[in-house]
Amino acid sequence: MDQHDAILSRLLTLHPKKIDLSLGRTERLLAALGRPELRLPPIIHVAGTNGKGSTIAFLRAMLEAAGKRVHVYTSPHLLRFNERIRLGADGGGTLVDDERLNAALERCEQANAGQPITFFEITTAAAFLLFAEAPADWLLLETGLGGRYDATNVISQPKCAIITSISLDHLEFLGDTVEKIAHEKAGILKKGAPGVIGFQSEPVARALEREARRVGATPIVAGRDFHICNENGRLVYEDERGLLDLPLPRLAGRHQHENAAGAIAALRAVAPEIPPAAIEAGLTRAEWPARLQRLTRGRIVDLAPPGAEVWLDGGHNEDGGRVLAEAMAEFHDKAPRPLALICGAQTTKDVRALLKHFVGLAREVVAVPVEGEHKSWPPEDVASLARAEGMPGAAAGGVEEALALLSTRRFDAPPRVLIAGSLYLAASVLAANGSVIE
């Protein structure tokens, strides 16, 4: 076990609950550390149900294309904890190295002195320590869960907040309606700072705008204050400052057009000096693993049916299923292939709501367990749900077995294989494939 893995294991024991939303414990620890959250670069704070990480990936790529040094905090990680903390440097940021990570975690552990604190809270404090001690021009900060009582929300004066697409997820913590969830996400909106409200259902957009005006934030609303459309293979963005004729984003799927638009709206509000050329470059350079990521080499690709396309996505809720199915339908329109869905999910997720979007689209669903997760849906149960929706459903012991099963099927063309349903499943696939995240 690596040194920081040992420290992280100890930190997991400091609170009986994995999730317990509160700001008090984080504020106490940060005070003991000398208030590093007051020594951070200008912050763009991002909350939402889906699209947070992709929006941050676009922001980072655009800012770095303009020569800015950018710190980034995201979660969860896929292959190793270091992915959560990226330190800005001239020429592009790098994941925190083990030595600096170990030192920050140990300082937090000592300052906390064994008091109750959640894993996310104490590791967020470690990230703030690292960000405060390394120079940068910007910090891109993703909430872990919710917004109002998320550990990252100890930040009192962000330059800008962004709220990406909101849908039902984490109902046990955030509420059982999208309006209640929107109220929690809106907690990151702050007085005097622009609040970019991404593409939402009308009730959610109204609720977010009301909250923005209540706290004194300036709402910038998608579909009203900024617009996007796809024209002749180009992404056309328009707001009160004018029109940008841009290339389509590197990240696949039309939902990424909306995420890119939110990033552009934020930069045009708080960093108007960023030139259109940097925005254009950022769209074509942005990377975000396990979000409609095409795997082109590695063990998993080798095990797929000959000639198959293999796509990987961590989408795990109903809205994630919707945008994934829309993307697969768009791929099919451009280059027809039979679609095979390999799906694994946790029992805390409504897997049937995800699956229903693939009716009439997926030629076969192969259900697999999520390795290492005791709350994984049994594969036969997921396969039964797929069959109940009218899709052929089968169960397999893992992704490799699922690929072997698909290789025995008679498709009329090499299939397009989508592996989805859980970020934990996506992480195991990347590890099995020999992929590296840098």
From TrEMBL:
GO terms for molecular function: ATP binding; dihydrofolate synthase activity; metal ion binding; tetrahydrofolylpolyglutamate synthase activity. SUPFAM superfamilies: MurD-like peptide ligases, catalytic domain, MurD-like peptide ligases, peptide-binding domain. Keywords: ATP-binding, Ligase, Magnesium, Metal-binding, Nucleotide-binding. Its cofactor is Mg(2+). The keyword Ribonucleoprotein does not apply. PANTHER family: DIHYDROFOLATE SYNTHETASE-RELATED, FOLYLPOLYGLUTAMATE SYNTHASE-RELATED. This is tetrahydrofolate synthase. The lineage of its organism: Bacteria, Pseudomonadati, Pseudomonadota, Alphaproteobacteria, Hyphomicrobiales.
